[in-house]
Each structure stands twice: as C-alpha cells, then as structure tokens.
C-alpha cells in the first residue's frame, strides 16, 4: 500500500495557533454538476466553502480527507483543487475508497498536495492512506504503521503535538453498515498512536456525519461530507437531510485543540432520502 509519510514539508507559520479547515467526501463526478443521491456535488462543495468564508475562517491550511472524486476522474480533482485554492493557498489531500491514487498523483502540484508529514508551528499533521484498492473498507498496513511510528518518534524528539488524519473510521461509530468498513487494523494503529502522548487527535471522513469523542486523552473526530449526509445510528444505509458542512480546528501552541462543525445555512439541497444504497463502493 502506498503512503505519503516519507514526504515531509515544513510550513512557514508566524507562531501561535494553527488554523485548519477540513473538507471531506466531496464525491465530485467527472463532469461538473454530477449528482450523488440527487445532490449536485459541485454545487454543495462550493456552498460549503462559501459557508467557511462567511464564517470568517482564516485557515493556515486545508485538509481534504478522501472520497474527493466519486469515481476517481482526473477532471474532478482539478475542480476540487481550484475551488480549495480560491479559499486557502495551502491544501493537502489523502485518498478514500472512491479515489484513484494515480489520478490524484497526476494533478499539478501533487508532490505538495500528497505530502503525509506536515510540520507547522508546534504541530505535526500526518495524513495516512487507509485505502485498499478495489475495496470499500480501510486498512493502514504494516509498512505504513512502521512509517507512522518513525514519524511520531521524530515529532516527539522535536516536542511537537500531532494531529493524525485518515479516511476510514478507526472506531465503530454506531452505523452497522458503515462500521463493517472501519479500519481493519485499528488495534495496531492505536497501539502505535497511544505510545506517543503528543498525539492529540484522530480526524477522519468516510462516515458523512459528525463524531466528537474521547478515547483516554485522544480526541476522535469525524465530519460531515460536503455533499450527502448519512444518518447517525442507522443499521442499514440511510441518507440524512442535514445540510453539508465542514470542520474547523484550532491547534494551540500548548497542545490544546478547539474544533467544531459548521453546516451550510440558507441553501436548500436536493437529496433522495428513499434510495436504499450507495450504489458504488
Ligand atoms: Fe464518502
């Protein structure tokens, strides 16, 4: 499994709090205006970015945590890149089960976009690849776990705090149909992460809903999709009528973290709540 942890970037920062916006599960089609369960995913993504602007968010960087393109179309990645670029000059991506890693790597500037180990201010931000090509569920894999341990040791030596981002959920979130797809080797992931008290939070996409929990001192966070939402607590596939949204994070110098979710206000989105499946993986 390919991963991006070997690529490291030290980002300039003027000290103090590091501000991040997470946009996830955009599911853009090959053609502009493509729909997922009746929702125009370009329109909803742009509305979410506009909401972040209206919220007055000033982000040092944006993370996009997978399922960025619904079918891995090269044109979808270019539209995402342009839309995020207009909001924030620095964006970083990781793949979800719907993505095509080769198409992501073909995007201009992909060496920067697909960098897995970012250092900014007092923080390290890691972007993992939990995609198993051709499958819906997620896994980190032994190679990547080894690289994760090395990256975390290096950050610990530099006394940095760490935020770990990935696509699939590492814990069950209470939706049976989604929880079958959670990170298969999550126990091994936690065994590595929990060896390093500098790791403050795990942040993921995939579940198209908000989760904010704790596991010991570790914050566990997931976020709304920029398109269709999935209903919390559902045994089988069920879309939800909540509006699309994004997550903001403020990573403070001393390791504290403030975060929240903001959903689009004042826009009506079309979504087919009767559809009983998600069709593609
Ligand atoms: Fe998704």
From TrEMBL:
The UniProt record lists the keyword Transferase: no
Keyword set, alphabetical order: Hydrolase, Iron, Metal-binding
Calcineurin-like phosphoesterase domain mapped to chain residues: 19-209
SUPFAM superfamilies, alphabetized: Metallo-dependent phosphatases
CDD domains: MPP_GpdQ (cd07402)
InterPro entries: Calcineurin-like_PHP, CNP_phosphodiesterase-III, GpdQ/CpdA-like, Metallo-depent_PP-like
EC number: 3.1.4.53
A Gene Ontology molecular function term of the record: metal ion binding
Presence of the UniProt keyword Mitochondrion in the record: no
Enzyme class: hydrolase
Family of this protein: Belongs to the cyclic nucleotide phosphodiesterase class-III family.
NCBIfam families assigned: PRK11148.1 (NF008359)
Protein name per the record: 3',5'-cyclic-AMP phosphodiesterase
Organism of this sequence: Parahaliea aestuarii
Gene (UniProt): cpdA
